[in-house]
Amino acid sequence: MTDVRETQSQADRELCGLINGLAKQIEAHVRSRAATLGLTASQGVALRELTGPMTLRELAERMSCEPSNATFVADRLEEQGYLERHPHPGNRRAKQLVLTPAGAELRERLLGLLSEDSPLAPLAPEEQDTLQRLLARAVVR
């Protein structure tokens, strides 16, 4: 029984190491691509994740950070003219983050840069789909 447990433990460590390595590669890729546009890595992640109007809490969840961190990033993007806060249509206490036309254009440029030499580029589209499905099953939300 100990051999089976040790083998599984080693496989888990190896898999975690690979996932961690991929996450670091993706983070470095986002950081370098965002920097070419004069953005921090966090601003790049925020722009990548702003697929439409959303609350700060939703953005923080997508960025995998605390709402206070997302607020800081949103404040900087707002100061730069890339983001606006609008009243939330269904919750008068909440605000929605909305990209300005300049922010939408910057987001498109960033997405283009992120697709170049992506750490996931060596995988065929069907392999990326399989990886996404497997990770979605493993990630508890």
From TrEMBL:
It holds the Pfam family MarR. InterPro entries: HTH_MarR-typ, MarR/SlyA-like, WH-like_DNA-bd_sf, WH_DNA-bd_sf. SMART domains: HTH_MARR (SM00347). The keyword Transferase does not apply. PROSITE patterns: HTH_MARR_2. The keyword DNA-binding applies. GO terms for molecular function: DNA binding. It comes from the Bacteria. Gene3D superfamilies: Winged helix-like DNA-binding domain superfamily/Winged helix DNA-binding domain. Residues 12-140 form the HTH marR-type domain. Keywords: DNA-binding. PANTHER family: HTH-TYPE TRANSCRIPTIONAL REPRESSOR YETL (PTHR33164:SF43), TRANSCRIPTIONAL REGULATOR, MARR FAMILY (PTHR33164). This is DNA-binding MarR family transcriptional regulator. It comes from Nonomuraea roseoviolacea subsp. carminata.
